[in-house]
Specification:
This protein is an alpha+beta fold. The protein has 2 domains: 106 residues, Immunoglobulins (Immunoglobulin-like, Sandwich); 118 residues. The protein is built from 6 helices and 13 strands. Helix 2 runs antiparallel to helix 5 and helix 3 packs antiparallel against helix 4. The radius of gyration is 23 Å and the shape is globular.
Length: 287
């Protein structure tokens, strides 16, 4: 029963961590709603899109009322003039598409409009914009196993920490399993995903400041160091080993909670304007 409850808690904590990370990252859509005549109309505005086409920015079609909207955009971190594009009805939504950019290219945009004689802006502050980044498509045969093994590694890492906390058996086994998952998902498949999406296998330390790559490296090293310190055989006195594993699990959880894609690849438009090939004009870090 104790083992079952610890597994339930492990899964619950993993799901909470995943939800927090995915819902707070810079690629998570901006959500909002319009309210009119007692009805609510929700929208989700993209912050990530593939380079196969211009990103379609969508608003709900609010009928039987004067509803107009315009998309305003320019290339990220440039002095470009702001372009304007009206939303037009496509199917059941109003759509205005941003121009497609090379991988790691970013567009900043905002929306203005009028709903039943009332003007609005998204985001509301006149100083804020929404940032969208383009990426090349990643094959599902690479992306799905990468995501699976990363979740797998976090689940067993949390389970190892709970085993250490409650002095249950198999603590080392879960450490090893978590390390295997992190090695496959983070250190093997992670760079392949990065290569497909942005053209480089690794943009973290020591080559760049990509937060996601650096997070992966820290997570992997955390379990490598923990396993080296505790060894593969059970000791007569396990207090020190339990503390090491618990600390490793806490470090893993804290690092994992850092939102995905922060400090990731960003196209340097100054270099693009100088004629440099987009594949050679990508920078990383807190951009």
């Amino acid at each position: 029963m104790k083992s079952f409850l610890l597994w339930v808690l492990s899964v619950l904590l993993m799901l909470i961590a995943i939800f927090y990370q995915r819902s707070t990252g810079p690629t998570y859509p901006v959500k909002g709603k319009f309210e009119n005549n007692g009805e609510t109309y929700k929208y989700k505005l993209l912050r990530s899109h593939e380079t196969t086409e211009g990103a379609p920015i969508a608003l709900p079609n609010i009928q039987n009322v004067d509803f107009q909207a315009d998309l305003h955009y320019k290339r990220y971190q440039t002095n470009d003039s702001i372009h304007h594009l009206p939303f037009v009805l496509e199917g059941e939504k109003l759509i205005a598409a941003l121009p497609v950019q090379p991988a790691a290219g970013k567009m900043e945009y905002y929306i203005t409009g009028k709903l039943d004689e009332k003007t609005f802006r998204i985001p509301e502050s006149s100083h804020d914009s929404i940032i969208l980044r383009y990426k090349d498509p990643v094959p599902n045969g690479v992306l799905i196993p990468h995501v699976f093994f990363m979740f797998f590694a976090v689940l067993f890492g949390i389970r190892a920490g709970l085993s250490a906390l409650f002095q249950t058996e198999n603590m080392r086994k879960w450490v090893i399993v978590s390390l295997i998952g992190m090695s496959i998902g983070g250190m093997v498949l992670g760079p392949i995903v990065q290569k497909h999406a942005f053209g480089e296998y690794w943009t973290g330390f020591p080559y760049g400041g990509d937060f996601t790559d650096n997070k992966t490296l820290i997570l992997w090293l955390t379990w490598v160091i923990a396993l080296i310190l505790i060894g593969v055989k059970q000791k007569k006195k396990e207090t020190k080993s339990r503390i090491i594993v618990l600390v490793a699990a806490i470090v893993m959880t804290i690092v994992y909670l850092i939102p995905h894609s922060m400090g990731g690849s960003t196209l340097d438009y100054d270099k693009i304007d100088q004629g440099i090939d987009p594949t050679e004009a990508i920078k990383t870090g807190a951009n």
